[in-house]
Amino acid sequence: MSRTKSALICGAAALGLSVGGCASTTPRIPYTLAEGQAADVPGMPADVRFYADSPAFVYERFRQGVVAQAQARHEPVTYLALSSGGSDGAFGAGFLKGLSESHQRPQFTIVSGISTGALMAPFVFLGQGYDGTLQDLYTNGYASALVKDVSVLNAVVGNAFVDSDKLGKFIARYIDQGILDAVAAEHRKGRRLIVVTTNIDQQRSVIWNMGAIADSHAPNALSLFRQVLAASASIPALFPPRLIEVESGGRKFQEMHVDGATVRQVYVAPDELIFGGKSAGPSPVKDLYILVNNKIDPSFQVVENNTVSLAARGLSTILKREGRSNVLSSYAYATSHGMGYHIAFIDADAPEAPSTDAAEQFSTEYMTTLFARGEAKGRRTGPWLSHPPLSTDPAGHDLAASR
């Protein structure tokens, strides 16, 4: 998680403590836990979503069609997981373009994305013909405009520092009916596009089958597709949450969804499969690729001795460790299930964003520099590592390098 995100969350918490009675957002329709657990999205097929902590058979049922069609085409099943990372998603976009330029980019059967990874995911899923769109996402100035004119007043009386639907308009600029139709066509071929949001009411990760949305032909398909992408990237406190219309027992209400990275930074499989030990047979996935839009190693910073700085640094430390744990658990999962493992991430020596200020973290100059760095790494021979760094001790790295 970026320093901007953690600082904003801490700032919002402080505001909530001091002015909690001033909020003026529209009251929500209350609903019970039982209603929430049974809720469906009107007009959408039953397989349009499931929870990340659902039983393993739910995920296996989701994956069956993928495997059958891949086998019919005599193609291996490959999985790419795109992590969270805010403005650092520019690295991943550049890395993928570099892979295309060096003819080292696999055809990914399944693509999952969280937060900034979710914004990238549809274009990565559709292939290298959309590399220009990926570059445009991070380097043309539109992304930097998302965090301009941050309003403290709006955070006091509303639900976020950004007081208009900038993120929704940004997504609508890139996701149109043509993109929806292209995703639907790939879905029918047996490929899968996954986006992860956090149902903040239930504190659970929701796995959205974006191809099923695109291929539903429902009148609300395009709006829901955009809404899920926006929810996955809606950093709490910075962007407003997304209220998704659902129905349970004939009763309609709204679930509140926020940034997928609130619970996890990378998604590869349900918890029951990740932590449940070796399965009865090898996984149908031949190769697992993890693209981390962040650094994995700890970052050094002399922290200012004040409440907000300490809280922000503490939260970012917790979340960085959680992200690293996600990466290590994905490695253990892949090796115990006979998959090839491939990972790429921002090198430890890459420059940090200029400050914790949101406008500077999302500056076009910073993202353009990071995009170029990712592109150069994607062009290298052997751009993926076969395992994550298992030690974060710099002395350990030095010893390993000298062997």
From TrEMBL:
Keyword Signal carried by entry: yes
Q: What domain of life is recorded for the organism?
A: Bacteria
UniProt region (Disordered), positions on chain: 378-403
As given in the record, the signal peptide range reads 1-23
Cite the active-site annotation: 115, 259
Q: Which GO BP terms sit in this record?
A: lipid catabolic process
Note one Pfam family from the annotation. Patatin
Q: Where is this motif: GXSXG?
A: 113-117
Positions of short motif DGA/G:
259-261
> Which stretches make up the PNPLA domain?
80-275
A molecular function (GO) term? hydrolase activity
**Keywords assigned:** Hydrolase, Lipid degradation, Lipid metabolism, Signal
Q: Read off the InterPro entries from this record.
A: Acyl_Trfase/lysoPLipase, PNPLA_dom
Q: Can the keyword Metal-binding be found in this entry's annotation?
A: no
What name does UniProt use for this protein? Alpha/beta hydrolase
Q: What species was this sequence derived from?
A: Lichenibacterium ramalinae
